[in-house]
Design goal:
With about 190 residues, the chain is mainly α. The protein has one domain: Orthogonal Bundle (Tetracycline Repressor, domain 2). Helices cover about 65% and strands about 0% of the residues. The protein has eight helices and no strands. Helix 1 crosses helix 5, helix 3 runs antiparallel to helix 4 and helix 4 runs antiparallel to helix 6.
Length: about 190
Amino acid sequence: MGTARTTRARWIDEGLAVLVEGGSDAVRVEVLAKRIGVTKGGFYGSFPDRQAVLDAMLDRWRTESVDEVLAIIEHAGGDRKSQAVLAGQLTFDEKRLPVDMAVREWARKDPTVADRLRDVDNQRMSLLRNAFADQCADADELEARCLIAFCVAIGSRLLHADHPGRTREQVLSTVRRMVVDTASTPLAPQ
């Protein structure tokens, strides 16, 4: 009876786990093989080289953080603001956030990864622009709201400040009211 071959998906899973734990430099064929419990030669049955698994990891990250999120919010329905809030919750949930943060760190060192991150972030900003467009008559305010919403979605997880007399959830609820629920003069119907 032959030994089962390690799937591409398993190599990618381990690659993403190593990326989160140790950064892009830690993603090495030897490390992945050891974690999976196979020889390094098994890797080459799925990928021609290290760069191929790195590219596949980025493809997986994009699929899970953009394509899957968009499919979920489309299926959920609701107004565009509710969909944008849900997209933020999904994008930065416990499963996706660690990988997203690891990709952001990787992008600081690798221009190709930075380009891919920019593409994903531009898609996310586009979703926010669409969500807030009906309530912002001023293009500058629209762009500022989108940036604030995006920065809060990422940064609130990095900031460990106290909020005297308030919980983090209370403060984030106020931010949501300020950024998502209120706006300048609404656009007049056309």
